[in-house]
Automatic annotation (TrEMBL):
It comes from Alkalicoccus saliphilus. This is Carbohydrate ABC transporter permease. PANTHER family: INNER MEMBRANE ABC TRANSPORTER PERMEASE PROTEIN YCJP, MALTOSE TRANSPORT SYSTEM PERMEASE-RELATED. GO terms for cellular component: plasma membrane. Belongs to the binding-protein-dependent transport system permease family. Its main location: membrane.
């Protein structure tokens, strides 16, 4: 009886902790959504208006009609999609080599990759700007994509290496017996069975790249080239106008593609996280 009460108490505390974490992450999203549907007087009304009695969906219409939000979204899509594709093209063979091959200083090399992942983009932003100015690489999407790839590649390689470790090497041997080359083995055997891990890596790289602010803010001067994370700063309130509700509406539009991507591919994330739970 005592053990049952103790177990119920522990479960109750766990669910309370879950609820606290859920509120911690969902409340900012709710507040931005609420702000995006308010009028200007409701922004400063006391007591606080948690949700407008007359939601102003016109705020969203204003964003689409009077701003470059669609251009910003398209720029972000091009940059993020290119970053994901190039990162995977480089990271998949690199992760396979680290997972399957034994060579001298392998642990040191992996530690070196991890150290690179620990370096914040903010640290290298100013030197990177000076270098890009010197080589006339400012205001170019492809140069920004290369920087994104360099930032995301260590994490992508490390993540995929851990996933490839869970795949039995017996599959490699079977592919060799069937006459597959190393490249064919990766393309025809490893990639199909690694779909959950590759999809999870793609989502994480996409989310991190979509939310990147410092690098594009420094390397891009032309507003027509801005990704959505940088384009949003044009909607900040000024002394002449209060645009907090418009900024909130644009923010909701900006995060919508990431939410859709996550929901659509969540089954692959679960598969990647549980793939190594049981080893034969």
């Amino acid at each position: 009886m005592e053990s049952r009460k103790k177990r119920m108490l522990i479960n109750s505390l766990i669910y309370v902790l879950y609820a606290v974490v859920l509120v911690f992450f969902l409340f900012p999203l709710f507040w931005v959504l609420s702000t995006s549907l308010k009028t200007v007087p409701e922004l400063f009304q006391t007591p606080i208006v948690w949700f407008s009695s007359d939601p102003q969906f016109e705020n969203y219409a204003y964003i689409f009609e009077r701003t470059q939000i669609l251009t910003y979204l398209m720029n972000s899509f091009i940059i993020v999609a290119s970053t994901i594709i190039i990162s995977l093209i480089v990271a998949v063979p690199a992760a396979y080599a680290l997972s399957r091959f034994k060579f001298k200083f392998k642990k040191a090399f992996m530690l070196f990759i991890l150290i690179f992942q620990m370096v914040s983009p903010v640290v290298v932003a100013i030197p990177l700007y000076r270098l890009f100015v010197q080589f006339n690489l400012i205001n170019m999407h492809w140069s920004l994509i290369l920087v994104y790839v360099a930032i995301q590649l260590p994490f992508t390689t490390w993540f995929l290496k851990g996933f490839f470790d869970t795949i039995p090497q017996a599959l490699d041997e079977a592919a060799k017996i069937d006459g597959c080359s190393r490249l064919q083995m990766i393309w025809k055997v490893l990639i199909p069975v690694s779909t959950p891990g590759i999809a999870s890596a793609s989502i994480l790289v996409g989310v991190l790249s979509w939310s990147q602010f410092v690098i594009p803010f420094i390397l891009l001067d032309d507003s027509a080239l801005y990704p959505v994370s940088v384009g949003l700063i044009n909607l900040q309130s000024t002394a002449e106008a209060i645009t907090t509700h418009y900024l909130a509406a644009a923010s909701m539009i900006a995060i919508l593609p990431v939410i859709i991507l996550f929901v659509a591919l969540q089954k692959y994330i679960v598969g990647a996280l549980t793939s190594g739970a049981v080893k034969e």
